[in-house]
């Protein structure tokens, strides 16, 4: 089937659907599914707009509300994750995913669904080490801090995704997995985005959490956005014995990931790509739940932290009675029973708040916090807890929100621990990015200027992707706490020897093949600048 992949959406649904329809006509083809990699801006009304972290001048209603109100209908099934410019109050209503409008499905903080036999997972938000180990404590009306932290990735979501063992076809993250730029045409990337150079060279650009997931999940495709540039990479993984990627003959096969990042929806920008993905024609033409994922959600239901206290995920370190929450045949069978053998995700979209009316704008409308019946239904079905309802209850009871009274937090030995990751990502901490808006206290802001995108040949996205520069993913690519803590940890050894891609004055360090453990080769990378791996929290970030 044909999947259209979009980078950042920034509320431009009309333009995106128009472009797809234009391409369908031009190429005489049919797109089956649209995937959006965040900055979706599902803004229903003026109150939602106040929950979006953008400078006031970029607070524009855009087109989503028309799809929410029913004035327009999404012509293609659309699946998206959250980024760092979102109506966070709306996405918060659907922590486990759900319909934000008819035919438009949000994956939740993290989620996995199936469409025509293609398994699609994703994680919302961007990585910031200072919020990574907190609970989901934010709620509207947001403060100037929580309006940002609400979209920061949390360790619990990564932990849940790391329980998965079955093969993943497609995975979405808003910020790029750290290190992915070493597996594509880095020279071309840095030509387009010179200001990434320092982060790329010091291997600090991108999310270490996403990198860990990439290493673990080894999906066939990984799509990202956020940096507003098109970039393709191809990564060959070493065989992981503990994860059973086994073919029909019983052989364990190495997996490879095709990575593609796309731009935002602007004229003459490469924001859309159509990809042919093999599907199972026997599977229904509708979104389906994922048994393994639901099993993990059920198993981890008591691992809930709605406070801003930091905590660690269970691991086999003597402090936790249980650390393996992966699915078994039995737990999957139980989920199937919960579902009455019907995997289809119900079409249960409902309007929870009034929508914007251009003829009668309500500028005084406040940011609302409501419990979404879709989440209530989902939680009742699988015995889960609606984080949103619990946060509200907590708030009502205590009159105060940010307290340590949450008794479900296992804080054993965790509070004083240093962050799991020491360096930040997703950002341009010491560079100036002329393509971005500068906010006084957040460097993640992007150029949100609105320009019209006319679907014309001039703006037709380039349909070719060159997944070049095949390289082997080192076993040590995932950033561990050791990596964060121990600057002498030399498991990654970067060779400074030779130039690649013909760079002149600034020779890139080529990944050098040093060992061949699996008979397929692995790579060691030597750190040139070990200082960046010290435990210092670099989250002061804040470029001007
Ligand atoms: Zn963006
Ligand atoms: Zn973004």
Would you give an account of this structure?
The chain has 15 helices and 16 strands. The chain is α/β, with parallel strands linked by helices and 544 residues long. The strands form three sheets. The protein has an eight-stranded mixed beta sheet with strand order 13-6-7-8-9-11-10-14. A hairpin with a 2-residue loop joins strand 4 and strand 5 (104-106). Helix 11 crosses helix 12. One zinc ion binds at residues 8, 39, 83-85, 174, 226, 446.
Question: Key features?
Answer:
disordered C terminus, 15 helices, eight-stranded mixed beta sheet, single chain, 12% strand, alpha/beta, 544 residues, binds zinc ion, 21% helix
Short synopsis of the structure:
The chain contains 15 helices and 16 strands. It is an alpha/beta fold.
Work out the radius of gyration: 22 Å
Beta-strand residue percentage: 5-15%
Which percent bin holds the helix content? 10-25%
Widest beta sheet: strand line-up: 13-6-7-8-9-11-10-14
What's the mean pLDDT score?
A: 78
Q: Label the structural class.
A: alpha/beta
Shape: globular
Number of strands: 16
Largest pleated sheet? 8 strands, mixed
Distance between the termini: 45 Å
Number of helices: 15
What are the distinct ligands in this entry?
A: zinc ion
Low-confidence stretches: 399-420, 422-463, 468-544
